[in-house]
Specification:
EC 2.5.1.3, binds ligand 3NM, Aldolase_TIM, 210 residues, alpha/beta, single chain, eight-stranded parallel β-barrel, TIM Barrel, metal-binding
C-alpha cells in the first residue's frame, strides 16, 4: 500500500449516519477527496446477512469508481468474498498471524495501543497500524481512554517509515496536532458523518497533511 493512502481515512457504517443516505455520505466524501475507506458496521440497528453484504458491495463499487482502497473492518470472510483491498482488525479480533495467512497480500491494518501489540502486528506483517483513541470519542462504545499523542510520537521515532494512522475524536480543530506528532494520516467517523459540509471538512483536513 502507499503511505499517502492513509492521509484521510474515512470509516463508516450505516449506524454512523443520521438523517441522510449513508451511500450519499460516502459518495460526497469520495468526491471531496478521502484517500481510503473502511466499512465498519457496528453499533445499534446494524445491517446483517444479505443486506450487510449488499451494502458492503455498494460501498466497494463506489470506492472503485474513485480509485480509493476499500477496507473491511474485522470481517475477514467478507473481505475475502468481496476481494476487498484489505482488512482492518483490532485486538479483539482474530490474531494478526491468522488473518495474514487467510488474506494473502491484501492490505492488513491493525489497531495497536502498546509496544507489545505493535511488535506482534509488525512481526506478522501489518501493512499499517492504527493508533488511538487520541482524543475522546463517542463513536466506539468500548474505546479505551484517550491516549493523546505520546505513543504515536514514540512509534514514529522508532519506525520512521511505518505507515501510521491516528484515530479517535479527530476533528478539524485538533487534526494538525496529530500530523505534527508524526501520523501519516487521520481516520475519522463523526467528523465526516456529522459534517454539514463534507467538501469543506475534507479540504480542511487535507490542508494539514505534512
Ligand atoms: N477505533 P470518531 S476510536 C473506530 O481507538 C475507532 O481504536 C478507535 O470515531 C480506536 O472519529 C474509533 O467519530 C472511533 O471519534 C473513531
Amino acid at each position: 500500500m502507499k503511505r499517502d493512502d492513509l492521509q484521510l481515512y474515512f470509516i463508516m457504517g450505516t449506524s454512523n449516519v443520521l438523517n441522510q443516505e449513508p451511500l450519499n455520505v460516502l459518495e460526497k466524501a469520495l468526491q471531496s477527496g478521502i484517500t481510503m475507506f473502511q466499512y465498519r458496521e457496528k453499533g445499534l440497528n446494524t445491517l446483517t446477512g444479505q443486506a450487510y453484504e449488499d451494502f458492503a458491495r455498494k460501498c466497494q463499487k463506489l470506492c472503485q469508481q474513485y480509485h480509493v482502497p476499500f477496507i473491511v473492518n474485522d470481517d475477514v470472510e467478507l473481505a475475502i468474498k468481496l476481494r476487498a483491498d484489505g482488512v482492518h482488525i483490532g485486538q479483539k479480533d482474530l490474531p494478526v498471524s491468522m488473518v495474514r495467512k487467510k488474506i494473502g497480500n491484501m492490505i492488513l491494518g491493525v489497531s495497536v495501543h502498546s509496544q507489545a501489540e505493535l511488535q506482534t502486528a509488525l512481526q506478522y506483517g501489518a501493512d499499517y497500524v492504527g493508533i488511538g483513541p487520541i482524543f475522546s470519542t463517542t463513536s466506539k462504545s468500548d474505546a479505551k481512554p484517550p491516549s493523546g499523542t505520546d505513543f504515536l510520537q514514540q512509534v514514529r521515532i522508532q519506525y520512521p517509515e511505518l505507515p501510521i494512522v491516528a484515530i479517535g475524536g479527530i476533528n478539524c480543530s485538533n487534526a494538525h496536532t496529530v500530523f505534527k506528532a508524526g501520523a501519516d494520516g487521520i481516520a475519522v467517523i463523526s467528523a465526516i458523518c456529522q459534517s454539514e459540509d463534507i467538501s469543506n471538512t475534507v479540504s480542511t483536513f487535507k490542508s494539514f497533511v505534512e
